[in-house]
Amino acid sequence: MTTLADLTMAPDAGAETEQAQRKRLRTVVAASLLGTTIEWYDFFLYATAASLVFNRLFFPDKSSTVGTMLAFATFAVGFLVRPIGGVIFGHIGDRIGRRKTLALTMVIMGVATALMGVLPTTAQIGALAPILLLLLRVLQGFALGGEWAGAVLLAVEHSPEGKRGRFGAVPQIGLALGLALGTGVFALLQVVFDDAQFLAFGWRIAFLLSVVLVGAGIVVRLKVEETPAFQQVHALQQRSSAPLKEVFRGRRTARNSVLGLLSRWGEGAAFNTWGVFAITYATGTLAMNKVSVLLAVTVASLVMAVLLPLSGLLVERHGAQRVYLVGIAAYGGAVFPVFAMFNTGNLVLFGAGLIVVFGVVHALFYGAQGTLYASLYPTEIRYTGLSVVYQFSGIYASGLTPLILTALIAATGGSPWLACGYLVATAVISVVATALIRQRDLYL
After folding, report:
1. How high is the pLDDT of residue 8?
2. Residue 354's pLDDT is what?
3. Of the four, 23, 205, 342, 395, which is 20 to 30 A from 271 by CA?
């Protein structure tokens, strides 16, 4: 009997003309890249706004530190809800396919983000404002819970033979571009409007822009074909009836799941340190210019986007596990030196440190992550498995990181070194967990 583990993930090149294959792959890349860019733009737009806007408009009666922590708490809620979305959309994706599921997640995300753009503030409707903000953040997290895994599978399961690493890096490029777009738009709006205008209405433009982006993204995603791997699952009638149960029931997949959850700790902490917390730390604690800081994050994100395909090439030569492990170790080694550069208060050194650790080092391991995690599960439960690893780890690895760092720095009177120790610890945990993943347990 043919088993799913034996099925190739690459399409049969002989079944279609070379021209048709190129067209199909271009559509796949566009759908994966554009979709993740828009979804992450929407999601991290909130993170940037939490640092610059929401702490002032939705928690205005609190001290600066408390208001920022409350804004980051609502940021963290999005990560708490993501596992629920991951399980639900993972089940749908493993049952009815990747393509339709991804279109649905984009619609939900776009609606939530657009509604944030017209949300009344605390000064206008009182305590109801932060409650509505929280509910919309919940909706964002729910939608994103099913996005990342589906986008990775859309690319990886369509990848031609020998190019899985490069295709697996495509959705990751979308994350870097989404963050760059979000911080870039905010920087532009703060240049165009003065502080009063920006707080009154300027910040809303960034959220309402999502309507246009989501419309374009849905059109592209509906043009892409279902992945060959899922089509084979459907043809063999071997779709799982309970994907979540199978993720933890099998000894092999259960071990992969635990190690995957731990291996992501460093990556999640790193991204939300450099892409989210650094903005608050630089503009608040270090009193740097907001526009300059946002531009530094934007440039670092663009450098990451450019280098992610190189990470995909390294994956094809050296393997996803090795590339990911080396990258996480490099992140751990860079934490203290980079914060030392930050603490000089020099904008040039701040930008240089951010480009190195976020633009270069993060690109190295983040480009390998999708391919590595996709190999942890067989096709019939792969959407659910990827969602479980990425979204459940997002609670402690990603969502809580800005909150933890803010609390640790406040507890030490503004010193970042205890927070740096925490970040190094996340890197150590991830390195050990990644090293323990066994090649014989992988499905790709």
Report:
1. 36
2. 96
3. 205
**pLDDT at residue number 237:** 57
* Positions of the chain with pLDDT under 50: 1-14
Burial (CB count <10 Å: 0-12, 13-18, 19+), residue 439: exposed
Tokens 């566009």: give the residue. 30
Q: Residue 239's pLDDT is what?
A: 62
Could you tell me how many residues make up the chain?
A: 444
As a whole number of angstroms, the distance between CA 284 and CA 118 comes to: 27
Report the pLDDT value the prediction gives residue 16, as an integer from 0 to 100: 61
Task: Name the residue with tokens 């939608």.
Answer: 143
> How far is it, in rounded angstroms, from Cα 263 to Cα 426?
9
CA distance 240 to 244: 9
CB 67, CB 55: distance < 8 Å: yes
Give residue 119's pLDDT.
93
Round to whole Å and give the CA distance between 347 and 121. Answer: 32
Whole-model pTM: value is: 0.81
The residue to which tokens 């993972």 are assigned: 90
Has residue 177 been placed in a domain? yes
Domain of 328: which CATH number?
Answer: 1.20.1250.20
Count: domains in the chain: 1
Angle, CA 391 vertex, CA 386 and CA 394 arms, to 5°: 135
In a domain, 2, yes or no: no
Cα–Cα distance measured from residue 204 to residue 48, given in angstroms and rounded to the nearest whole number: 12
> Which residue segment(s) compose the domain that 435 sits in?
12-441
Query: Would you say 83 and 190 are in contact if contact means Cβ atoms under 8 Å apart?
Result: no
> DSSP string of 164-191?
HHHHHHHHHHHHHHHHHHHHHHHHHHHH
Judge whether 1 lies within some domain. Answer: no
